[in-house]
Automatic annotation (TrEMBL):
PANTHER family: INNER MEMBRANE PROTEIN YHAH-RELATED, INNER MEMBRANE PROTEIN-RELATED-RELATED. It holds the Pfam family Zn_Ribbon_1. The keyword Transmembrane applies. The chain crosses the membrane at residues 74-96, 108-131, 143-162. InterPro entries: DUF805, Zinc_ribbon_dom. Residues 6-27 form the Zinc-ribbon domain. Keywords: Membrane, Transmembrane, Transmembrane helix. GO terms for cellular component: plasma membrane. This is Zinc-ribbon domain-containing protein. It comes from the Bacteria.
Amino acid sequence: MNNGKYCVNCGKEISLSTSFCPYCGASQPANSSVTPNNQVTNYQGYVAPGVINSTKKLFRDTFKFSGRMSRADYWWATLGFAILVTIVTVIGFFLLALNYEIFEDETLLGFGMIMFYAVIIVIGFPGISACVRRLHDANHSGLMYFISWIPLVGGLILLIFMCTEGTKGPNLYGPDTYL
């Protein structure tokens, strides 16, 4: 089939007039295609979620508190973010322990702790902006993030909001996120 398009879900070639993939049954947007490396794109620049793509998007949009973030993008980015934080933390504590072994004093421990907290503050921004954009996808105000400050139940309520499906179609915060 030379004059076709590719399914946004499974990547198999389908005819241009097809609204649903005959292989996987996924609905096909009118203006979408799959690139040769199987990244789903459309004219708005959408790239399919995955650990690497979503984590790149998370850091690229660190200070972007407007717009929407799909549920899949959010959770893939959260996984990628957790992996990066774990790696940086392990390396940091390893270097601190190595430093303590070499110098055998605690003079640099304070500096290490200051750097640790600075990194925690810096890496907090991408998580907060992603959370706000995820709330926007579910048609909630970004100020709902502050519900997480309620002791014991706030984090659980926010987790439920993060797991809910986003609004289909455009909403107050922007166009559909496609997933």
